[in-house]
Amino acid sequence: xxxxxxxxxxxxxxxxxxxxxxxxxxxxxxxxxxxxxxxxxxxxxxxxxxxxxxxxxxxxxxxxxxxxxxxxxxxxxxxxxxxxxxxxxxxxxxxxxxxxxxxxxxxxxxxxxxxxxxxxxxxxxxxxxxxxxxxxxxxxxxxxxxxxxxxxxxxxxxxxxxxxxxxxxxxxxxxxxxxxxxxxxxxxxxxxxxxxxxxxxxxxxxxxxxxxxxxxxxxxxxxxxxxxxxxxxxxxxxxxxxxxxxxxxxxxxxxxxxxxxxxxxxxxxxxxxxxxxxxxxxxxxxxxxxxxxxxxxxxxxxxxxxxxxxxxxxxxxxxxxxxxxxxxxxxxxxxxxxxxxxxxxxxxxxxxxxxxxxxxxxxxxxxxxxxxxxxxxxxxxxxxxxxxxxxxxxxxxxxxxxxxxxxxxxxxxxxxxxxxxxxxxxxxxxxxxxxxxxxxxxxxxxxxxxxxxxxxxxxxxxxxxxxxxxxxxxxxxxxxxxxxxxxxxxxxxxxxxxxxxxxxxxxxxxxxxxxxxxxxxxxxxxxxxxxxxxxxxxxxxxxxxxxxxxxxxxxxxxxxxxxxxxxxxxxxxxxxxxxxxxxxxxxxx
Length: 589
Description:
- The protein has 589 residues and is mainly α.
- It has a five-stranded mixed beta sheet, sandwiched between helices. Strands 1-2 form a two-stranded antiparallel sheet.
- The longest helix is centred in the middle third of the chain and has 28 residues, at 363-390.
- It is 58% helix and 6% strand.
- It has helices spanning 21-27, 29-36, 39-61, 71-83, 87-90, 102-107, 119-142, 145-157, 159-165, 171-191, 195-210, 217-227, 236-259, 262-273, 283-292, 294-303, 312-330, 343-354, 363-390, 406-416, 428-438, 464-469, 480-485, 487-499, 526-531, 546-568; strands spanning 2-5, 12-15, 422-425, 441-444, 475-479, 503-509, 515-521.
- Residues 1-33 and 573-577 have low confidence and may be disordered.
- The chain is globular, with a radius of gyration of 27 Å.
- A hairpin with a 6-residue loop joins β1 (2-5) and β2 (12-15).
């Protein structure tokens, strides 16, 4: 006789020794749990998990500084530097912009001095690798250790998750904390410990303080609870969890107001709500779907049709995917990184499908078949991930890579142009990079004069021809990234450079010799320059009280950690004295 655990309800029972682990896994759920507890299964689980962590670390940390920042990265890094009081940035980049500041607060110690760029990428990569580990934990809570390890490996090699994890983006920490919230929700559903719903709210609050769009997952939680009504009892726990998540999310505008930056944040909110659509309705299915992996999505979907697969655990994971997808599909502005918070659930659904042998009359055939599918699925992700890591980046989607030539151009400007030089770029993306690396003022041609249609940080150039004629700008910058995004303004920049006798003073090329960036020195009209008024200066930036922001975000983190600790240290026995279900399913306890 030996002890085993029931794979359905987690209680313990006695049973005689059965056949081999593979045959037991196929024959019945209780024997499947025993098979997953066997030494061989534990060795496989450990090997897969070790591979996931090792490969995930290589894909996320190798050559992080190989290419300069993109525009979004430059903004977040500059916010961190301004928050730290770095004088190179405080006069040009406001601390308060469009998003909460938890990531920027975390990065600020790395940006105290100088003009560092890739330091923040290591923090983002650490959050990405941490999410891989959390997916393993989530798999053990919901299913078993083997499922968690396979899911962690799939997420580790997923090109979509890898690409965003290698950048200074807010979506990486948002996904890390939202995965923690999903784990807490899964523990609450598995063990009937309602306090874990409050912990889930705390983690979701931190995700919203990383990026406010994470609050949409509150809808995912309520959809799951609506479909699993027993989790509402007692009702105080789900309501308190939701209240904690909302309270932590609202601490962002409250802290901003206390620190003196509310007027700026209100302008950004108005801009965010009035932005026009930037992609078609098929954007997520094509651009993001191909990066997540169509094979992985097909495996995840196919696994739902296996017998016994569609249960409360699948409902939880699907709620975590469907609600954000529908929301962002309806939302007019679509970003490449917006669906990152869905990837842990998608990887786990695929991992669940690949962790069990396929139905077959002969167990060995089912095991070989599922291993073959798992290898193909991982290879379909790893090959494009390695290709993206090793190839020379080109102009592509915003937020999908660094901007080729941006760092080199900014550093050349810093070394060769006078401190009062002003540059006219095609759009704000290259302007951000030039300002980040050089400290020179740059404005974008494509910035709308309508306040409702432009980022409040950017100043419009209302009459570029007059500004160049009177010498307000001495240089025009053309870059392939912005020119591909806006053909009209790309051609306009070239026309203006030619009209004012622009001569190239700097050309940055890629490894094939194609032009990435060209800086033209232009000549103003002598008579117009003599009659021109004094050159306009950038409006002064009023920075908020940094101490208030640091203390406020530290308090929010402590509140969330306290909710998790309270749930973890709560009694393991129910109100009747019976021992509650264990947190982890299958594998080692």
